[in-house]
Amino acid sequence: MLALCPRAFVPCQSKPAESVEDPLDHVGRRSLDIGVLDAEHERPAMAAGIQPVEKCRTRTADVEIPGWRRSESNPQTHAEIISSRRVRSQKARSVIVFRSNWRKIYPVALEALLRGRESFARHAWDESYTLLFEADRQAPLEAEDLEHLAFAAYLAGYDADSETVLTRAHQSYLARNEIESAARCGFWIAFELFNNGDVARGGGWVARAQRVLGETAECVVHGFLLMPAGVRRIMEGDPAAAVTLFSQAVEIGKRFGDADLIAMALHGRGRALIRLERVAEGVALLDEAMVAVTAGDVSPIPAGDIYCSVIEACHEIFDLRRAGDWTTALDRWCQLQSGLVRFRGQCLVRRAEILQLHGAWPDAIDEAQRACERLSQPPQRARGAALYQWAEILRLRGDFSKSEEMYRQAGQSGRSPQPGLSLLRLAQGEIETAANAIRNALEEAKERGLRSRLLSAHVQIMLAAQDLDAARAGANELGDIASTLDAPFLRAVSLHARGATLLASGDARGALSLLRQAVTEWDSVEAPYEAARTQTLVARACEQLGDADGASIEYGAAREVFERLGAAPDLAAMVAGTATRSASLPGNLSARELQVLRCLVTGKTNRAIADELFISEKTVARHVSNIFNKLGLSSRAAAIAYAYEHRLV
After folding, report:
1. pLDDT over 70 (residue 55)
2. Contact 298, 306 (CB under 8 A)
3. For residues 482 and 493, is the Cβ–Cβ distance under 8 A?
4. CATH of 108-199, one of 3.30.700.30, 3.40.50.970, 1.10.3720.10, 1.25.40.10
5. Which of 82, 330, 370, 443 is placed for a possible disulfide with 307 were both Cys, Cβ 3.0 to 4.6 Å?
6. For residues 458 and 479, what is the distance between their CA atoms, to the nearest angstrom?
């Protein structure tokens, strides 16, 4: 397991002297120096295992100063007491002998070191970083404490310092010929670089760690070094190979009893299985890894990484209920750690997504803003996701100018602005621009989860562009993905898309059934805005079927939600649609005549229209004649062209 507990000083033990050396003759030149501690430093020194020879009780006293020699077991780390002599102490102080790596350690450095270790143990990351940094400034730390300083720096958001200090720890271990520890530091340097998007340098450190290990016997670090290879296999589209690598890492972790490696590898294997569409197996492994994390068995850095990755996986499979549960758990975990910067930003982004889904838009904006601030200093890749989330809510509330700027910043921070930017262009009336952008984005997307997010917007935009074939193909693909993942959220997305496509095709009755199912699914995941959007389509279907009362009820319910959320664009579209339907139809067409015209667009015969609208064929013929007269047309083909030109379908 990664050493996260400080290695205490070895208590002094007296031995008969074979040869006596005076440590006072070697201050600043030899491995063992004399430190003088005031009484206030005595307790923390004792807690660290540093034993004073004798406590002075008077202002001037004789104090035993032992001799010393190098320990045969670890000559670079330990010193054994072998003799003593008496000196005069001018103040009531304890005289302590300790190793100082060829330097004298003064009381202020020792106090900072001890307090820094204690802060590390209670997960006060910024405090631990500050104290250990000061101790290192006074007298360079040993490798073990350099690791603690590096990890505290990483968790407190000082990424550059973390890499520098961890590199020093790596070099220190190499100098001491502690190969496994040096390779372990190399892995964690690579881990940090990968998480910050520096793939090239991260790969270089993995290769260095592997070279350092060389032909040494298997150790736990061999298991850790399988992790980047497994992730790379997933990114290359070979999740089956990733499963094999992660499984090997799990076995190594079990052989060495390393909870960090076991949890990381289980979670990696779970994500690979999800990519293989073995979703139930993958989710079970994610939950197993999270049990170890929530039980406190996993160290902070891998624990936080697993939290964020599992939540990302839940979003990938649209299991938003589980994502919400783990986001809440991550938030609690973050709250327990003082000075934590790493992972807090990602937590806020996920919270913003969940809050938006549940209709708490003001709170979602606050969380997205806080996430942007936390992820800005130091800059982190997740900032792009925070900016995108902020842009989404601004778009839905009608602040198009600011939303566009946020989308652009998200793109510059590494997060694609699609599909949000295409939907913004659609809301601005730039249908062709929106259609081209979403087509390009969908063409580039290969991964199923990403395609499913793009397909929903693709169907909406293709319908606006009157490309029914493209919309239908997108809706069908969404349906296939939804049937595989079996997630309520994705089922709702699919039902909405298929219903909207049928409605645009003139099949109001078929659309109505799917759209009502979609509303039910939206309600099950507590998504009021999405449910309201679907209800507007339900209302349109009711209108086309002659159910004016049903349409009024659905429009009223949707309007109430839009007003409460501040969804200005949707309200404006609803008002414009109502005006069109009630007073501004070209040629003063009646609602029934509009229904008949929409049926004509689909190519239905008078008999088919009569069957669909539950009226006689003779009545249909009269409506068709009225449509021709009111619009000044002479054929069905002209009526269909008119309907498309005036966006009546």
Report:
1. no
2. yes
3. yes
4. 1.25.40.10
5. 330
6. 14
